[in-house]
Structures are given as structure tokens and as C-alpha cells.
Amino acid sequence: MKRLLAAVGLVVLAGCGPHGSTQTTGPSGELPTVTITTAPVTVRPLQRSVDAVGTLSGYEETTVAPKVSGRVLAAFYDLGDVVLPGTVLLEIDPTDFLKDMDRARRALDLELARLDLTELQSKSQFKIEDVPAVRKAQYALENAQKEYDRVTRLGGASGRERDAAATDLRLAQATKSLALSEANAGLTSAWLRKDELDQAGLRLDDCTLRAPFPSLCAAWAAVVTPGFTPFRYSVARKLVSEGEMVQSQPKTDAYQLVIDRVLKLPVGVPEKFVGEVRLGQPVEVRVDAFPGRVFPGVVYRISATVDPVNRTFYPVVAIMNLDRELKAGGFARASIRTRVDPAVKTVPTAAVVTFAGVNKVFVIENDKARAVEVKLGTRDRDWVEVIGELQTGATIATSGHSQLVDGSPVKLRE
């Protein structure tokens, strides 16, 4: 049993070197000298970034539907076509709406004929005294008033003449009051018919379905030139065909449109980066469809709250897509460039030793190796950021790690 225990002890001691390798000592019990190569701990500026993923969406996405029911006469655009705001997308058979408008116009003309008017002005401009019947009653009242005043001024007028003048005056007053009432009623009816005519005209206009105007169109036109807009819609889906019957209630969707010259990319970012992500920061966007391509973007909106379920907040990245290479609905990766660290310690990738989840480098001091545990940060092809008790400019081993332990004497490879 004693011999067995001694043999096990020798095996354990033989495996005490780095990575489980055998570490032997010299005749006097000293560690052997290891031949190595070295490199200094280098300080360099480093661009910090926050990586996230999301789904691309159009700057604006909308589904348009006709406001009236009827049969589709023509659908002018199809999948992938590009249309300007205000472009006619489809037309609905206007026959019934033309008849409705004609009936409404005849009804208005009838009311105007009863009032002896040829046209109906707006309520703010129209005066009730302009109605011919009211004007005629006003003239009669003025004449009756003058006759009454003349009779009452004459000293020789008989009582019968005065009574007749007073009666004529009261009759003229009553006639004007009646004319005003009838004119008000007629005007109310006429304005009602005018509203019906306007509604019939709107329904006739609604037989033509147009691409909507984004809210920013007016702002662009005011800054650049009237009528100009950089926005274009792309037809994402065509949902109706010529000859098909469409309904306003429940609505029948006709086209799905998307503004895809500018795309939005909402991305979920962990809560710990709230203090680093800012409006206007540049973003590098990558998609699988274009390996190696970087699409520039910018953070243009940031959510005001943090999702309490997954502890993320949502910046929104705007991406120019003038050539329409990127597609709304596609998966994308975003790297938000947050800040630049002016002095980050880095070492060559070959200098890092990883074992059992622990990262370390060997610092060379007085021709001996000393192991220093580090944490790794940003990686590049030839170097890696290290966080730990390392001095800038310190010399570290870049080879010979399988033989190095704390205190190993070293010499430089010639």
C-alpha cells in the first residue's frame, strides 16, 4: 500500500506544470530556463461600441384601403413598383356616385329657386337681407312707414286714413317677419342640400385611391421647394385586382406601401448601456445578404423607458437605403459607436494563456516570469485588450507558455 501511495504522489507532482504539462527541475532543484519571445504591453486608443440585433422596418409603412364600396375599374401598380405621395393607385367605378351627386345638385337648385337665388354663398359671407323675398318685404315696410309718418303729420287727415296707414304698417311688419322666417327655413334647407352635394363630391373623389402624403412632406416642401419631396413609396403588397368588389365597412385593404429609401432599425440594448447610447451616434449595420458590407446609420430615437421584463431599452437607428439594397423585415446587426477610450492596454493575442476559464499573461521581470491574471476585452486580429494589474510598457512572454510557471528563469530566443 505504501508503494502505491508513493507512485500516485509522483504522478500528481509530475502534472503540476502549466496546462498539466510535466515540469522538471535542475540538479539543484531550480526551475529550468525557458527560451521565449517577448512583446511590450501597448497602449492604444480604442473605439467603444455596443452591439445589438434587430429587424429592419420601413421609415413609414402603411396599408391603404378605399373609403367607398364598389367595383375596381383599374389597379395601376403592382409589387415592387415605386410611387410618389399622391399617386393614383386604383380607381373604383364612379357610376353610382355620379348619380348621387347629380341628385344632390338638383335638390340644391330647387331650394335656391324657392329662394329666388342663383348661388349659395358661405354662411359667414351671406346676409339674410340678400334674399329677394326679404328685400321686397323690407321695401314694402319702408313704404308703409313713410305713408304712416306722412298721414300722422297731416293735421287734416281723417281717423280712417290714420287707421288705414297704421294697419298697412303692421301688415308690412308682419310680412317682413314672415319673409325672414321663410328665408331662414329655406336657407337652412339649402345649406343642408349644399352639404349633401359636398359629401357626394367627396365620395366621388374617394373613388380614386391615392398614395398618402407623409407628415414630413410639407416640411420638406417649405425648406426646399413647393411640391418637392424625397419620399417614395414602394409597393410591398397588392391586395386587390381589377373587377373585384371592395368594401369600405368592413374595409378591404388594397395596397401595402413602405418608404424604404430610409429604413429604421429598432434594437434591444441592455440597460447597463443607458448612459452610453446617445442621439446622433454613428452606427455600423451589417446583414447576412451582403457579407463584409457596412451600411452606415445613426441613432435618431431612443425609447424613454426600459422594458422591465428583459431589462433592455430600444434605440432606433436610421439607415439610408437609396439603392433599396436592404429590405424591410430583414435581420440586421448594429454596432453603435459610443465613445473612444484614449489609453487602452493591449497585448498580442499569442501572449494570453487560457486554462480552466482563467486568462493570464506572463510578465518578465529580472529575467524571470511572473503570472498575472487578466480579463479580456475587445479583440482584434493581432491584439486583445487586457484588464488587470499590468503596467504600460511591461514586457510579456509571447511563446514558451507550456513550460512557464511563476518564477521560471527565461532567456530571449536569438
Map the helices and strands.
Blueprint (H helix, E strand, L loop, with lengths): L1 H13 L19 E3 L1 E3 L1 E14 L1 E8 L5 E6 L6 E2 L4 E5 L2 H20 L17 H22 L5 H47 L2 E3 L6 H7 L9 E6 L6 E2 L8 E12 L2 E2 L11 E5 L8 E8 L9 E2 L1 E6 L10 E18 L4 E3 L2 E8 L2 E12 L3 E6 L6 E3 L12 E3 L2
Helix pairs in contact: 2-4, 3-4
Describe the structure.
With 414 residues, the protein is an alpha+beta fold. It folds into 4 domains: 18-37 and 352-412, conserved putative lor/sdh protein from methanococcus maripaludis s2 fold; 50-59 and 258-340, Efflux pump adaptor protein, beta barrel domain (Elongation Factor Tu (Ef-tu), domain 3), CATH 2.40.30.170; 64-92 and 217-256, OB fold (Dihydrolipoamide Acetyltransferase, E2P), CATH 2.40.50; 96-205. Helices cover 26% and strands 34% of the residues. The chain contains 5 helices and 23 strands. It has helices at 2-14, 95-114, 132-153, 159-205, 217-223; strands at residues 34-36, 38-40, 42-55, 57-64, 70-75, 82-83, 88-92, 208-210, 233-238, 245-246, 255-266, 269-270, 282-286, 295-302, 312-313, 315-320, 331-348, 353-355, 358-365, 368-379, 383-388, 395-397, 410-412. Strands 3, 4, 6, 9, 11, 13, 14, 16, 17, 18, 19, 20 and 21 form a 13-stranded antiparallel sheet that branches. Strand 18 and strand 19 (358-365) form a beta hairpin. Helix 3 packs antiparallel against helix 4. The two termini are 50 Å apart. 20% of the residues are buried.
Summarize the structure.
By secondary structure, the protein is an alpha+beta fold. The protein has five helices and 23 strands. Helix content is 26%, strand content 34%.
